Amino acid sequence: MMGPAIEVQSLSLQLNRVVLLEPISAMFKPGRLHAISGPNGAGKSSFIKCLLGLMPHTGQVLRHWSGRPGQIAYVPQQSAFEASLPVTIEEFMLTSITRWPLFFKRRDAHLQRIDELLQRVGLASKRHLRLGQLSGGERQRLLFAQALERQSLLWCIDEPMTGLDQAGQLSMTAEIAQLRDQGATVFVVHHDMEWIQQYADELWIIEGGLAQHRMVSRKQSSLIAEACA
Ligand SMILES: Nc1ncnc2c1ncn2[C@@H]1O[C@H](COP(=O)(O)OP(=O)(O)OP(=O)(O)O)[C@@H](O)[C@H]1O
Q: Domain named ABC transporter: which ranges (predicted)?
């Protein structure tokens, strides 16, 4: 099974009369790890949100699935949870898994699945903490666990390493590489060129509102160095 190719036709974005993205046309190959990089404020997160249909852009984003269209997994750039929210990690995951209100009966199978996912991101021992009690790295792990639940072949991951310690970064990298190896089409917004050189299949740079794609093979690391000089 392979994720979709993503075709972008004259995609542009303007908010409050500010042009965030100049028209972009590109074809993103399926089953690849696409790194999106570029300076702060260049429009990387906005671009990802356009791919997801979360921003009122002009132009088209076409998803070419090889079979039936699937779900999209989105891991947003880190945001804080409201500290007083009376929701634990387990309850948060439960609502993601069941799409039911919290007062419905918790089924053992759901709790077991949640346990598996939390184990995978190293949060199993924190399942009873409230969202507002989580550290930045823990929030990042939780958002990733929630996205994993969707078993998607199309992933958009916005700066996944923010706040993660070294072990967390290694396991996040392994998870992302595994998604790609399983055939998913993966977009990762990332600033770390060494990481991109080692793990990404393609590099796309958004700069000054324009998407200039400088695509390189993972094996041609010298080309990446040239692109980023
Ligand atoms: N509603 C809005 N109206 C006008 N400008 C906005 C609005 N929302 C975001 N922006 C601006 O759009 C630009 C692009 O933001 P975006 O978050 O996409 O950048 P980014 O490349 O992901 O940045 P970073 O690397 O810092 O995360 C920024 O300059 C931001 O201030």
A: 6-229
pLDDT tens digits for 206-222? Answer: 886 555 555 455 544 44
Residue 118 identity (one-letter amino acid): L
Quick one: which H or E segment has residue 139? helix 136-148
What does residue 12 show for φ and ψ, rounded to 5 degrees?
-140, 160
Q: Which one is predicted more confidently, 16 or 101?
A: 16
- The continuous run of DSSP H or E covering 181 comes out as helix 166-181
Residue 94: per-residue pLDDT: 87
Which atom of ligand 1 is nearest to 46's Cα? Answer: 18
User: Which tokens is 177 given?
Assistant: 């590489």
Based on the number of CB atoms within 10 Å of its own CB, is 2 exposed (0-12), middle (13-18) or buried (19 or more)?
A: middle
Which domains are assigned to the chain?
5-78+154-168+185-228 (3.40.50.300)
Of the candidates 31, 59, 54, the residue with the CA atom closest to the CA atom of residue 177: 31
List, as one string, the DSSP characters of 41-105.
Answer: TSSHHHHHHHHTT-S--EEEEEEE-SSS----EEEPSP-PPPTT---BHHHHHHHHHH-S-TTSP
Atom index in ligand 1 nearest the CA of residue 191 equals 25
Report the separation in Å between the CA atom of 47 and the middle of ligand 1, taken as the mean of its atom positions.
10
Residue 2 CA, ligand 1 centroid: distance in Å? 31
Question: SS3 for 215?
Answer: coil
SS (HEC) of 3-57: CCEEEEEEEEEEECCEEEEEEEEEEECCCCEEEEECCCCCCHHHHHHHHCCCCCC
Residue in the structure block whose two tokens are 């021992």: 125
